[in-house]
Amino acid sequence: MVKSTKNANLERTARLLNLVPYLLAHQGIAVRELSAVFAVSETELLEDLNTLWMCGLPGYTPLELIDLSFDSGYVTIWNAETLQSPRSLSRDEALTLVLGLGYLKDEIEDGDRDLQLSLEGLIGKLAASFENAPLKKVHAGAASSALIRGAIEKAMLERGVLNISYHSMARDVLTERAVHPLELRIEEGVEYLYAYCESSAGYRTFRLDRVLSFTPSNSSVVPSFSEKPESERRIRAEIEVHSRLRDAFERFRVPIDATSTAGSPTISAEGFNSDWLVREIMSFGGELDLHLPTVERAKVLARSERTLMAYDVSL
Q1: pLDDT tens-digit series, residues 90-108
Q2: Residues with Cβ < 8 Å from 169, sequence gap 6 or more?
């Protein structure tokens, strides 16, 4: 197979950069031996040496250019101090490669273990070359698996159904659901799946990075389009904030103004379901009072009582 011109030029450039420090360390090496070291023909090597004659610092006079001698069949080099160091990666370059290789490793199927081991070996070599850099602790991976995204896109194209394992942050449980994928969305940098969920008998939005696994489903359920949109089912809450004002405003996405930070302000917020609202209120450890809705207020009270009982503390 003939290499492309682009790849051949890149390989030659790399070879020229490697030739200079090698020749400086092996003055008087035979052309035949040098061609074997770099795995090229003697003709190609002589072309490289002729090219090096034109390399050096700006000015391009004999004082700045590299000087070589190889007419006798043995190669000697002078005035090449500017290129005498072997090629090496900067810290930023090594870090970029470690992050990229880590991302690729996470995207490879578990069955291709040999390729995963090769990537792990490359990451280890790069990390070991920088003792003072935290490369061994750095890792980058996709927020959501390319395999899961690909399965969803295929299901949308074929109008198929997927069984997914989904981590619900609202209830902090792992659920199994049969979903009919309809659309992939990106909102504020987060990727979501909009789908009909058979378990909920309605349309739901799932964060793609919380879909842990999937399998094709043979479900024959036909999605219903009579359900009200999710936006009409949001829970509107009235919350009194005693402290941690900024945390509360940011958590419930309430705009901050000069009049809202005095005393113990009451804010109006919206939640996407009851469990989420209760968990958010509980996470503030008594710094928030939920006034409305009354159903969720009762749930917060009941959960607080159970928590205190676990510590044997009476209200």
Answers
A1: 777 777 888 888 777 766 6
A2: 207, 210, 276
